[in-house]
Amino acid sequence: MLPSPLVSRTDRRQFFAVLLLWVLVGVFLVTRKLWFGGGMEFLVWNGFLAVLPLGMAWLARRSAARGWLFAGLGLAWLVFFPNAPYLLTDLMHLRTSRPSVLPLDVFLLASAAAAGTLAGIVSLRWMHEGLMRRGVGRWVGWGFVGAASVAAGFGVYLGRFQRWNSWDIVARPSEVLSNAWSALGEVRVFGYAILLGLGLCVGYAVLTMFIGSPHSETPPPAGDQP
């Protein structure tokens, strides 16, 4: 059996699915700019932040054999992971859309929400595979998926309602931790985090149904086995 490739066929499918959705978002953004003079440009920055976890997860999975590097990349991934499902909350901007542009904004924001969420779910899949390469058990791996999803829901709450950014954890760590600790005392925050986390888990389950359960190693392409 040959060594597993740098980018497997399954990886390419996931990557191009995410890319296709972002191309669609770009088409809608350009159309809005040409027909209505712009608006919703914040999606460019939010989209960039949503894709960052994907790159971090890919690098983390590739470095699974190096414990310190995997841990560092995994921590960075966890900090930025909420930026992916955060795009779901951008749907709230529909309330400010003019009637003439509302149909286009519905497609634009819905596409961005789908693209960000899929990017997050794929990055979660790659982190799950990285953990399996580290030798964790099946139930520990799936427990990680659930815990990371709920943590992302909590991160989205802090970002949308408390207006914290991912880099604030480095720039203003004491303030972020203090605010997060206070928020944990509110029942509605738990509900928000669990509901959004449940949605991510369902999305992850759907992805798993299409491409199969994660493995500790990426199988080689068909025809490469002896």
Order of helices and strands: HHHHHHHH
Structural class estimated from helices and strands: mainly alpha
Global geometry: globular
Structural domain count: 1
Straight-line distance between termini: 6 Å
- Name the average pLDDT: 87
Count of DSSP-assigned helices:
8
Low-confidence stretches: 218-226
Residues in helix, %? 55-70%
Strand content: under 5%
User: Radius of gyration over alpha carbons?
Assistant: 19 Å
| Main sheet properties | none
| Number of beta-strand segments | 0
Protein model, in words:
- The chain is mainly α.
- The chain has one domain (9-211).
- Helix content is 70%, strand content 0%.
- It is built from eight helices and no strands.
- Helix 4 (102-133) crosses helix 8.
- The protein is globular, with a radius of gyration of 19 Å.
Helices and strands, with pairings:
Elements: H1 9-36, H2 42-62, H3 67-80, H4 102-133, H5 138-160, H6 168-171, H7 173-183, H8 187-211
What is the gist of this entry?
With 226 residues, this protein is mostly helical.
Tag the structure with descriptive keywords.
226 residues; mainly alpha; globular; disordered C terminus
